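Reproducibility note. Readers wishing to regenerate the assembly model reported in the main text can use the exact inputs given here. Chain order matters: entities are listed in the order in which they were concatenated for prediction.
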Amino acid sequence: EAQVTQNPRYLITVTGKKLTVTCSQNMNHEYMSWYRQDPGLGLRQIYYSMNVEVTDKGDVPEGYKVSRKEKRNFPLILESPSPNQTSLYFCASSPNSGRARGWSDEQFFGPGTRLTVL
Amino acid sequence: AQKVTQAQTEISVVEKEDVTLDCVYETRDTTYYLFWYKQPPSGELVFLIRRNSFDEQNEISGRYSWNFQKSTSSFNFTITASQVVDSAVYFCALSETPRASGTYKYIFGTGTRLKVLA
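Running the prediction on these inputs yields the following structure tokens for the assembly.
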């Protein structure tokens, strides 16, 4: 089954304790992205990656790191989490094959990770 | 700067009523892409439709229809004869022309929560 998986789905941690949220897709998609969803703010893009070893900042990258060593995986790293990073996080992937043909592919989203930082 | 505005935070309608969700965007790009996603109470994000900036044809899919007007920078979504299952948060999104580096971001609106009452 084609899907984007995220782990863990729920996480409660304390301020300053490094954590990683994994994201994996089995669709051979080039484009991957992380978003956070907060009440009243909608979805905001944190980081995105066009392909292996190509990453770039979204609109809210502060306090986050990412890496793209393999095409299928795009982990989100919080080196020193703080309470303002408490949020619902979504990973997404997209083929990125449509742009050359005049359209933009939709994104496929993972199920979300609810993170609470105490 | 790119921006997507969904001014309606929450809308409540009675089943079988028609409802329109507004989306207004800002961009300097002449080529861009617009999307609508649905987030039902279960939390997943589901792609509904995409539209290119150079294709102003409106689209109808069952009870759903979309009205894209470049003159007013709007991409509104109408549900005809709403049903309880339409209750969800709906997000409008914009993706820009790739930069010189070939990268591009997605910008989401803050979402509109639709409640359809039986």
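We highlight two features of this model. The CA atoms of residues 1 and 28 of chain B lie 7 Å apart. The interface with chain A takes residues 6, 9, 33, 35, 43-45, 47, 50, 52, 54, 91, 93, 95, 98, 101-111 of chain B (CB under 8 Å).
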